[in-house]
Amino acid sequence: MKHIKIKEIGIYHPKKVVDNAYYEDYFKEKGKDVSNFLKHMGRKKRYIIDNEDENGLTMGIQASKDVLQRANMSGKDIDMIVFSTQVPETTFPSNAMFLHHEIGAGYETIVMDQNANCAGMMVAVEQATRYMMANPHVNTALIVGSDYNTLISNPDEEVTYANYGDAACAIILETTDEETGFIDAIYHTDSVTRDKIMYPEQGLTKAIRDNADMKNIKWLPFKGKIALPPTYKMIETLLDRNQLKTSDIKAYCLSQFTLSNILKIQEEFQLDDQQIIYVGDRFGYTGTSSPFLALYEGINSGRINRGDYVLFWTIGAGFQLVSMLFKY
């Protein structure tokens, strides 16, 4: 039986580091105290693009080159490329087309962009895995998640401006006969908050035809905790149908959007601190790549090793929840 494993993982982030003190001073001048907000979100530092030469596409290209080098592979070894982003540098051609060129991929390589907002990279991994299982001619896939979040952050709102960071992650999926790799995934979609987080704020048609504002993301207040009850059910279902207990999972690589959600999930399932991989204090919130930055940290710190069970969970705007189970 064909299995799909994570062969290698790589990342890229800009050089500039901005700590909480900058945002606390910045919003203090606007009459806001954001120190409790930053503590709630679990932020300390984040990487920020601060030059004209970098963007979401260039970050994705650098992360891809990093993972190919780590895997001792070239672009010609890749059968499929999926570029996940919610801040594409171009809508056509696809960002994946530029990436194809930069890594020197072959003529038969499948290329596409994919957008499921912050859930995007996880959806891309799950969908690419299913496709690889079905297509005997696709044995490797390069999945890239890259968001230039600070480009569209609203400087008047701390939930985006003080919370976001810029980074990219790339993984190589590979077919194997080993009893390892992808196990299962589960989704929960509820479109109840579909109008709360929007970019462009009034839609693309009005932005272009009517010159409506499209500089910053619109983020209206909503109760984010509504996502937690279905999250608990999803994780329980995923574990139950694969005959696993919470203690069997070596690492939980969860959305890094807010530390408070991670702590609530930890408390709900009585997880040990060592089972939780948290990098949001160093990277800020990086959108589509965030659970995989946690995976990268877990692997490189030695907390995740081959044969370990890893459970992923994330949330996308609207909202869509995704949870995925791998044997690394």
From TrEMBL:
<dbReference type="GO" id="GO:0033818">
    <property type="term" value="F:beta-ketoacyl-acyl-carrier-protein synthase III activity"/>
</dbReference>
<dbReference type="InterPro" id="IPR016039">
    <property type="entry name" value="Thiolase-like"/>
</dbReference>
<feature type="domain" description="Beta-ketoacyl-[acyl-carrier-protein] synthase III N-terminal">
    <location>
        <begin position="112"/>
        <end position="190"/>
    </location>
</feature>
<feature type="domain" description="Beta-ketoacyl-[acyl-carrier-protein] synthase III C-terminal">
    <location>
        <begin position="239"/>
        <end position="328"/>
    </location>
</feature>
<dbReference type="InterPro" id="IPR013751">
    <property type="entry name" value="ACP_syn_III_N"/>
</dbReference>
<dbReference type="InterPro" id="IPR013747">
    <property type="entry name" value="ACP_syn_III_C"/>
</dbReference>
<keyword id="KW-0012">Acyltransferase</keyword>
<dbReference type="Pfam" id="PF08545">
    <property type="entry name" value="ACP_syn_III"/>
</dbReference>
<dbReference type="Pfam" id="PF08541">
    <property type="entry name" value="ACP_syn_III_C"/>
</dbReference>
<keyword id="KW-0808">Transferase</keyword>
<protein>
    <submittedName>
        <fullName>3-oxoacyl-[acyl-carrier-protein] synthase-3</fullName>
        <ecNumber>2.3.1.180</ecNumber>
    </submittedName>
</protein>
